[in-house]
Amino acid sequence: MSKWTRFRENTLFLFPSVILTLALGIYPLFWVLRFMFYDYAGYGDALFVGLDNFRRLLRDMQFWDSVKNTFVYAGGKLILTIPLSLLLAVLLNGKLRGRNFLRAVYFMPTVISTAVISVVFYIIFNSYNGMVNQLLLKYHIIDAPVDWLGPKFAMLTVIILAVWGAVGNYMLLFLAGLQNIPADLYESASIDGANGPQKFWYITVPMLGPVMQMIIMLAIIAALKGYESIMVMTEGGPIGKTEVMYLYLYKLLFPVSTGSVVTQQIGYGSAVAFATAIIVGAITMLYSYLSKRMNNVF
Questions:
Q1: Which residues does 31 contact at the CB level (< 8 Å), separation at least 6?
Q2: Given this model, what pLDDT does residue 224 score?
Q3: What tens digit of pLDDT does each residue of 235-266 get?
């Protein structure tokens, strides 16, 4: 086979990926970079406004509230998901009866539609006849129904949903890492008199270092970009208590009217998309820097 023939075949194999990357990655990026300097509502002519969209962004308290809500949502999800996933992985990696069935059960939420899960949780946490309130009232844990989707508990409720949907995925990744740890290390530790917690802290955790770094990176990105379940359960309410960055951006680019006229704001939405990408990118780069420092620990 000549070099030209090999080059032509390699090019043909790469052609679909290149086209998709240009159409779905590069072109939308330049499209956003262009329209963030315009006042454009999706129809008619686009009016060049320079940096006015960014000046509006700096004064937009709704956006900055969504940034704060994103950090609360992502932080709560990470704090609960990572330890719980690791705990389940350790338990299901042992000689537990029915462990394969339990692995499938815990992984199942990751393959169910986010919209379906959100509707089910909305019914379960309903303030009037939801299953959670009924159980708590039945066992006299509460005296009156709790408004789980109200201003006080709405963020907690969407975090619980996010944790429930993510634990199974990261559990499998931890399981893959645990199964690559040589059993000889645990046997040697047992001969030296190490107990279970000591084996976990001095063998399991260090050996899972690379896998844990990858899982935390994936979890951070997923938590910062998550909005689908919130959109279905609360639509960012009540009074903006659960509105995160990507949900706010979605409403600007794809507005949904609930009684009043809502105007599509592609120009300002593009500026918000750019700022959101900068925030997520900065956090990702910060974690990448910290993860390199973690290599000195694990």
A1: 270
A2: 92
A3: 888 888 999 999 999 988 887 655 444 678 88
Instruction: Decide: 277 and 247 in contact? Cβ < 8 Å.
Output: no
- Whole-number Cα distances in Å, 27 to 91, 153, 264: 46, 41, 21
Which residues does residue 47 pair with via DSSP β-bridges, in sequence order? 39
Q: What are phi and psi of 256, to 5 degrees?
A: -120, 120
Which tokens hold the place of 184? 């000889």
Residues 6+ apart with CB under 8 A from 194: 202
Token pair, residue 246, equals 């990507």
Length in residues, the chain: 298
**What are the structure tokens assigned to 284, written together?**
């990702």
Dump pLDDT digits (tens) for 139-175. Answer: 888 888 899 999 999 999 999 999 999 999 999 999 9
Alpha-carbon span 116 to 113, nearest angstrom: 5
Q: Residue 227: is it exposed, middle or buried by C-beta count within 10 angstroms (0-12/13-18/19+)?
A: buried
DSSP state of 235: T
- pTM (2 d.p.): 0.88
Tokens at 65, concatenated: 């509230």
Assign residue 126 a region (left: φ > 0; alpha: ψ between -120 and 50; beta: otherwise).
Answer: beta
CB 38 within 8 A of CB 271: no
Q: How would you classify the pairing of strands 38-39 and 47-48?
A: antiparallel
Residue 108 to residue 115: CA distance in whole angstroms: 15
Residue 23 and residue 15 in contact, taking contact as beta carbons nearer than 8 Å: no
